[in-house]
Amino acid sequence: MVKQSIGRRNAMIVRLYSLILSLGSLSLITFSLWSVWSKIANVDESHAGHVEYRILTIENVTSKPFELHSLSDTDLHSLIDLPSFNFNINQNVCDNNTKLVVALVHTAPGHYAKRQAIRDTWAKMIPTLFFMGLPDSNVTQNNVILENQLYSDIVQGDFIDCYRNLTYKHVMVFKWTLYYCPCARYLLKTDDDTLVNAPYLLEILNHRLSPLGARNLLMCQLILSSMVKRSYRSKWRVSYSEYPNRWYPTYCRGWAIVYSPDVIYKLYTEAQVTPYFWIDDVHITGTIAVKQNITQTDLAELAVDESDVRDDKNISRKFLFCLLSEADQSMRKFWNIILQPDDTVVSSSTNLGLDINVDT
Description:
It is built from 9 helices and 13 strands. By secondary structure, the chain is an alpha/beta fold. The protein has an 8-stranded mixed β-sheet with strand order 2-5-4-3-6-10-9-11, with helices on both faces. The chain has a 3-stranded mixed β-sheet with strand order 7-13-12. Strands 1-8 form a two-stranded antiparallel ribbon. Helix 2 runs parallel beside helix 9 and helix 4 packs across helix 6. It is globular and about 50 Å long. It is found in: Golgi apparatus membrane.
């Protein structure tokens, strides 16, 4: 009897333990499903009711992309929460002339080698300017001044150039575009470690989009359902007071973004009155894009990392933008491969929605 009692007790313990494990697994599954659903709901909510872009034709070019006079008299010298902003170095390369595309490159004052690599390669085909803040060294600043005297392609704002000021830099790019290059059909924002496949980009803009431009275009490589980093070990750590939500909205990887000028105007005017958040990609192409009802168009495989094409000798029509790990060393090498005359690779099959958003 004692043995039977012990056996029944052990069996009950085993069943109870199994029940606890099952409940634990159920809870884990429930939590996982809730996590997945919260991400899906976040994506759906951020895109609800958004307006897709349209390309312009002779028949539908009826108005300017924005009206500069709608900005306040004090707007030029204010930058978000900086009330006395000024361009320390400025350029007027557009001079009210129409440009198909102008490249606006985020750079740091000390990145001379990367800027020179771009000047020697794809900037020969696309008008290009380099945007930066102030360095913490007088020597570096003097070098920047000398460099600009030689190339006349640097725009510098009077804020310190650092990670926490990236949003100032991004919105400064918008400000410069609106005030000094309002006639550009497309604006390409890149980082200084981005290789632009200029021949293929010009083909895309002229023939698969439109040489007359577009409206509501924000084209980039998308990041979906990204969780906010809270770890103190991450340089991208964000506190709850800075950003209380658990997930970021869908946003663009900032190293290659194509804007239409009306989108720049919408994002700029909203950014000027929105509390500052330092991760510019999330803030501008995510949070503010949602507020302005702008849908991002995914570049998909037309935006690649260097590792994707490192050993490929036929790349001239395989990507638009490539993020390089050592741009100052590899930019020229990849550019020479792009310009190979015997490159016969067919065009990428990515359609970017370019065949379905024509408004005639």
